[in-house]
Amino acid sequence: MKWIDLNGQWFVKAINVRKDVPKKYVRILEWIPATVPGTIHTDLLANGIIPDPFYRMNENEVQWIENYQWLYRREFEVDAEFLKERNIILHAEGLDTYASIAVNGKIVGAAENMFVEHRFDLKKHLVAGANTIEIVFDSPVKRSKQLEKKHGALQVALESHRVYVRKAQYLFSWDWGPKLTTSGIWRAISIEASTGPVLRNPFVKTVEVNKKFAVIELSIEIENFQKPISICVKVEGDGFSHEVEKKALSPHLRFDLKIDQPNVWWPNGYGGQPLYTATFTAKQNDDVLSQCSATFGIRTITLVQEKDDEGKSFIIEVNGVKIFCKGADWIPSDNFIPRIPDSTYERLLTMACDAHMNMLRVWGGGIYEQEIFYSLCDKLGLLVWQDFMFACGEYPQTSWFQKLVSDETQKVVTRLRNHPSLAVWCGNNECEWLFCTENPDKTPDDMTGSIIFRELLPTIVKQLDGTRPYWRSSPFGVGFPNNESNGTHHQWHVWSFWKDYKEYENVNARFVSEFGFQAPANIKTWEETTLPEDRFPQHPVIEHHNKQVEGQERLYRFQSAHYNVAADFKEFVYLGQLVQANALKTAVEHWRRRKFKTAGSIFWQLNDCWPVSSWSVIDSSLRPKASYFYARRFFADVLVSIKKNGDTLEVWGTNDRLQRVSGTLHVRVLSFKGEKISNLSKEVVLKSNSSGILQKFYEMPVSDENKYDRYVVAQLVSDEGIISENRFFFTEPKHLLLPLPQLFAKFDAPKDSSLHLIIQSAFFAKDIRIEIDGYDMELSDNYFDLDAGTSRSIVCSSKAKAFDVEKKIKISSLHTIK
Fold first, then answer.
1. Is the link from the previous residue into 97 a cis peptide, with omega within 30 of 0?
2. 3-class state of residue 362 by DSSP
3. Could you tell me the pTM of the whole model?
4. Which of 317, 430, 579, 582 is the most exposed place for a label (fewest CB within 10 A)?
C-alpha cells in the first residue's frame, strides 16, 4: 500500500458570511495558515485573531465562531505511479463534524459524524502533479438547530439541539466546561492507494483460559478479495512465539490457536499486564501484499449479578477473580482535543495507576478516546468502562439517526475490541435516569431513543465483540434506573442537592459509577489564567470558571460546615480542596468496607478540560489537588478505616490483595501535643480480597469535654512497616484546638535521582501542605497528617539540586495556613 500524508499545513477562511464582520476579525475572510489535525479555534488563536478562550472570561468573546462556515484547503502532489494503483481512497480519521469534501473542484463525499473515520473514493478525481483538496465545515449549531426544528425538541439537559448531531456533547457546554463548539479536521488525514487485497480489522478473542493453556480465536477481514490467498499469522509475546500459515478462501478468515502456559493480563494491583501481538501478512509467491497487527492480552471479563439479601450484586470478575473497581470518571483533557499531547495522557494515566486505581470510566459526553489512551490503559492495568457517546437526554429515534449510530457503533467496537483493558460497553450516561426523574409515571423504554440502548447497541456489541459485558446506561438497573439495590448508581443527592458528605454513609448502592464534590483548581493554575485582582472567590471571573449553577455557593456552604470560611483566596482554595478530599475519603472508605456488597467506587472526575472549579482531583494544568493525595491513601490495596457506629467505634481492615495480610494493629488515643491517652495492640489477619471489622470499642475513647484536642490513630504494621494508617476526629476541623505544630523540613542525602524531604513536627500537624515556588514537582505524598514527635520522608521527583529547592520550599498545615 502507498500513502500520501495530508497532515500539516493547510489554509482556512470563513465563507458565506456577511461583509460587516467586525474589523478585528476581518482577516477570517482571507486565507490564513491552519494546522491539521486541529480545530478552527486553535487556528484562529495561532494567528492572533482571537484571545485565549481559557483566560479570564474570553470564552464569551469567541462564541461567534460556531455560527460560521469554514473552508479548509491545501495542495498536494501526486506522481503518475501512484495513480496506477487500482484503489485510491481518501482516509479521514476524524472530521468535526458536518463536512463536504471536494478534490480538484469535484465533490467526493460528505460527513456528519465526528466520532468515526471516513473513506472516500478518489480514483477518478486525482491527476498527476498538483492537486487541491477543500473541506467545507458547516456550522454544527445551525445544522443541529435546523434538525431540532424539523423533528421536534426532546427532553435534554443543557442545549437541547445537541442530541441531533453526532459530536462530542461537552463542546456545547457542560456544568464543568465552557461552550466552545469546534469545527475542523481533528484527526489524521491521508490518501491510501493499493491494487491487491488489503488486510483490515484484526481481532483476537480469548475463548478459554486456565493455568495450563489458553485458546484464542484469531480473525481478519480481507478487502478487495478476488481469489484464495495465503495468510501468515505470527503470535508473539512474553517469551512466546508461534507462526502458522492459513489459506483464505473468502474475505473472512477465522481460526483458533492454543497457547500453553499463557501469561494472563490482570488489572492494576492484581498481577502483571503481559501483552501479545498477532501479525497478519497476506502473501502471494513470497511477495507481501498487505500486513496488519493487533496487540492483545489474554484474559476473561464477566459481570456477576446474583441475588442476595440487599437485592442483586454487580461485580466485575477478571479471570474468575472478583475485582473491587476503584477509580474515576474520565473526560477529554482539553476542549481542543488535537492539541492534547501524548505526555498529558501519560501523566494522567500514570497518576491514576499510582493512586491504586484499577478502572476509569470514559464518560458518554466526550469522545471515544485516542489510541494512546487505550494502549496506556492496557500497559498500566486500568480497566476501561466505555460509555457510548450519548449523555443526559433523549436522542432521536428516526431511521436516519439510527443508521448513523449503527455505523458509528460498528466502527468503534471494531477499533477498540482488542484492548484487554476495555471491560464494559455502556449505552449512555444518565439518559434513562434523567428521563424517569422528569417522567415518574413512565419507564426507561418510553424514552425517545431507547431502542438504541436496549436493542441496537447490544446487538452490534454481541456480533462484533462478545467478550465483555454490555450495560444499558450509567446508572441503570431493574426498576427506577438509579436504584441502590441493583445495577449501577450515580450519587448526586450529596453535593448537588446540598446534602453534606457524611450522607454518603447512608448510601448502600451496589456499584457507584459516579459521585463527587467540587474543589477549586490549584493556586498556580489560577495565577496562569486570571489577573491578581480577579482572585476573590466571588469575583465574576472566578464565578465564570465554575459552570455549575450555584457552584460557588456550594463551595461556601460546605466549607462553612467543616472549616472556618476563608476570606483570602489562597486559603479558600486550600480549604475547598480539603473539603473535597474528605468527602471522597468518607464515601470510598464506606463503600470499601462493604466489599462486595458494593463492588465499585468510581468518583467524578479524574481530570479537567480547562481551568475551573470542578469535581476533578487533577486540574487542567495537570496539578494534583489535595483529593488526589487522599486517593492514593484511600484506594491503597490494604486499608485501615475507622467508623463511628452509634456509640461504637469500629476499626476495619480492607484487603484487595489475593493473599491474606498479617500484622499488628495499633489503636491509640493521642492529644495534639503528643500525650498518649490509651493504647491497644493486637495481632490481626486480613483475609484475601475481603473486608471486615478488626476491633470494636463499645465506649467512646474520648468524652464530649476533651474531643476538641484528642483523636484516634489506627495503624496496621508488619514486616513491610506501616501498611496503612488512619485517623478519626470527634468534631469538625473548624472546632479542633490545634497547637502550632512547629514543623521542620530538610533534605536527606539523595538516594537516587530523586530528592528526599524529611518533615518533622513537634506537635500534631493536620493536612500538611508542601509548596515549592517555581517548581511543579511530583511528590510522593502531600496534604497528610503528622503525629506529634514523628517524621515523614517525602520523595520529590526533580533534577534540581537540593540546595536550590530548599530555598523555595514552604511547609504549612491547617493551623498555620496564610
1. yes
2. strand
3. 0.97
4. 317
